[in-house]
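Q: Could you fold this chain for me?
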Amino acid sequence: MNTMNQPVKILMVEDSPSLTEVYKAYLADTEYQIVSAETLGIAHATLGAYQPDIVLLDIELPDGSGMDFLVEAEILDNPPKIVVMTAHGTSDMAVEAIRLGAFDFLTKPFDSARLKVTLDNAVSQLRLGKQVNELASLQRDHYGSFIGQSPAMQSVYKTIDSLATSDATGFVVGESGTGKELAAEAIHQHSSRRDREFIAINCGAIPGELMESELFGHVKGAFTGASNNREGAASVADGGTLFLDEICEMSLELQKKLLRFIQTGTFRKVGSNTLEKVNVRFVCATNRDPLEEVREGRFREDLFYRLHVVPVRMPPLRERGEDVMLIARHFLDAFNTREGKSFDGFSADAEESIRRYPWPGNVRQLQNAMHQVVVLNEGTVVETAMLPEPVTSGHIDTPDLAGPSRVSSSVNNAPIAITTHVERRQQVEPLWLTERHAIETAIEICGGNVNQAAGLLEVAPSTVYRKLQSWKKRQA
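A: Sure. Below is the predicted structure, expressed as structure tokens.
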């Protein structure tokens, strides 16, 4: 049905040729496109071929009742707006027509003003219906690997749709666990490069001395341990997409080489004098404030403006409303299948706890929580007691950076333990050891996943890796 950009099509079903001409004359100064039919047979034949937006339908026709035509039209996928025309004394029939789905009725005789107002109202309803359908089509509850129908995610989907059709660089920002890599993958999958490689590099998880080789590759003998030639991500991603995650963790020296690569499309492998050229689409991401990194001198301003072409902000889970339950149900079903359990939903109290909790670790934390629920419990309904303690208490699930409390406060009016200065000094441990305890606790909570632990600690993964390496050297 076409109601917006082309003339509105009207099928006029009237057995009186003289009245047909009168009605057409009423509409002579309008842009309506009118086709007439004198019988039900002609009207039936015209309905499918002409696909009118509005039907002016006389009830009493030579070969039957217009009511039959009304019933037929109303079962179409895109039924027209039907305006019934009745003579005096048939108002009961008009009321019945409205009950069956007719938009309005006109009692004969009527003048041009009455006809125009009725048709204008029908057109307004058609346009409103089309707008509602268009909005409904935009309310996607999933997109690529994303699950969510909140306004915040609709905005993300729309931005990715627009970005994917170009080769502009996408700059994805958001907290840890919000799905920045999923956004990069969606940009690639909806682009013309979808049949080529999508290569992701986590700039915060690779030691700085290896990062250049990871990005550009190296030749045999370029450095100790380089026993063979190696293709870097830039070569492998030729024709596809190169995703640089945690871009703000890259060293300033390598940022300079990356800028040259982006500007020219050329690079040299580590240890090589040969200039190579590739065609790569860039997407990058960070959980930091890139402008703050520029102001602090940790990120090159010229590189920032080269990369920051189309920003994509991934909203934290606490800003996504009911999405949290859509995602929780999805993970519950997935882990049910994986673990062979039979959970099929949540109790009302459990849902309330999930909705109320701010999820500082975002979707990744919710995923881990649902996995824990399924592994540790049995049943068909997830109860509040089955949820991780931080979710039910509202406490933020992060390691205690200060370590366990050394002095207990009074409980039930019991006296507070008093310690001497010497005892208190003995209780103080070196800062590096306190830091180590916090990091090791976070890694243990995250099942050995260093990136997730870094997210909970609100530090870069590269920082955690460096700390772990320094402690190994200290032990050695």
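A (continued): The chain has four domains: 9-137, 143-315, 318-393, 421-475.
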